[in-house]
Amino acid sequence: MVKWLETLGKAIASFLDLLGWIASLAFHVLVHLPRARVDLRSITDQMERVGVQSVFMVSVISAFTGMVMAVQTLDQFLKFGASGYIGGVIALSMIREMSPVLTGIVVAGRVGSSMAAEIGTMKVTEQLDALRAFGLDEYVFVGVPRILASLVMVPILTIFSMTVGTFGGYLYVAFRGIHPLIFKDSIKLLVNVYDINGGLLKSLVYGFVISIVACACGFRAEGGAKGVGETTTLAVVWSNMLILILNYMLSTLLFGGRV
C-alpha cells in the first residue's frame, strides 16, 4: 500500500511539474513575442510543415468521419421523418466539434511529435547551448516560429476539414437518395457564423497547445536517443489529452445551452 501511494505521488508530482513547465514556457514566449528576432524563412518552413504536409491526412480522416456520421444518423432521421435536417446536423457536428478536434489530434500526432523530437535532438546535442552562447533566447528563437505557424495553419486546416467532412456526409446521403437541395437548405437553417467562429476559436487554442507542449517537452529532453523518444511520446500524449480536456471546456463555454 505504501509503495502504491509512493508511485501515485511521484506520478502526480511529475504531472504537475510538467504542467507548470508548459505554463511557464507559454508565459515566457508570449511576453517576449512582440520583440522576438525570428527569421521569416523559418516561419514559412514551419507553416508548410504544419499545414501543407498535413492536408492529405486531414482530408482522408475528415471525409470518412463525415461519411460515418451520415451512416449513423440518416436511418434515425428517416425513421422520424426528419431527413430535412440531416445536412445541418452533420455540418454542425463537423464545425463545432469534429473538425477542430480531429485536426488537432492529427497535427499533434504528425507535427507535434516531430517538433518535440527535433527540439529534443537540439537539446541533447547542445545546439540550444550554442544559441544561448550567441546571445539568443533559445526558447523564443526556436519556439516562436513553430507557435506562429501552428496558430495560422491549424485554423486553416480546420476550415478545410469542415468542408471535406460535410461533403463526405453529403456523398453518403446523396447515394441514399436525399436531394442535394434538402441537404443544402438544412445547413443554412442550422449553421450560423457563430458556430463557425466557435470552431475556429477552438482550433486556434489547439494550435497553440500543440506547439507549446511540443516545444516544452523538447526543451526538457535529456539522456540521448532514449530521452528524445520518451519526449516525443510525452508530447503527443499531453497534446491529445489537453485537446480533449479543453474541448469539453470550450464546448461548454461557447455552445452550452445553445440550440
From TrEMBL:
Keywords in alphabetical order: Membrane, Transmembrane, Transmembrane helix, Transport
Predominant cellular place of this UniProt entry's protein: membrane
Pfam families linked to this entry: MlaE
Subcellular location: Membrane
GO CC aspect terms: ATP-binding cassette (ABC) transporter complex
Membrane topology: Multi-pass membrane protein
Transmembrane segments: 12-31, 52-71, 77-95, 147-173, 203-221, 233-255
GO molecular-function terms, A-Z: phospholipid transporter activity
Family per similarity comment: Belongs to the MlaE permease family.
Protein name: Toluene tolerance protein Ttg2B
Organism: Acetomicrobium hydrogeniformans ATCC BAA-1850
